Amino acid sequence: MIAEENDAAISQFKKGWAQGDDLSLLELANVYCFASKRYQDLKPLMAGLLKIQERSADVDVKHEIANILIAYSLFGTPAGDKQLFLSTIKGLSDEFILEREDTAQIVINGLETFKEQERANHFSNKLADLKKSEAFFKAGLSECVSKEYDAAIADFSKAIELNPKNYSTYYGRAGAEFELGKFELAIADDTKAIELNPTFWPAYHNRSIDKFNLKDFVGSTNDYTKAVELKGSPISVSGQ
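RESULT FIELD:
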């Protein structure tokens, strides 16, 4: 039954691809790669996939295509295509590879397959750090709920040390600092969250409250105005 469903999907997506539909091409590649494991059938799709990857602004689409290209380089020929694999990951930053665990894991597997153990270890260690960082982040959130703010700050700080590019962790630590009356530290962390994600309106909102508590009324008003602009509606100013 599954094979019949895959064949029906392949037929449908081939028709869409013939009409120039990028989504049909991508879905066809997904069926070949992940649903039916027909890796050899991916070869005629490679040029089209590379064009979609180049012009797409959607990070998820880029990850999806990267995973397909890597899978094809590993399984599309009996011995694998090391050159294609290495050229595929050469254009991907560490940040992009590690952004999603499925992408990171398939890169690690490929590096190990092609005896690039040093680089495989590099990504394995980075991925482990991200998982540890996420665990500390979740612990910090739980401690904020139970009002253990000093412990929360300690765990958020450990999370930041392991992954300094997660804006949510700075925002979380700022919330704990606010509760302890450490408004200047909270401002610094909300500012860092904004640097990492300029459209994250809650950080502007909370920074406006921190500034209000320090009697920076102009700065507070500016941040609140920016938060409303980004959110698109008025926001409560009763607390963090």
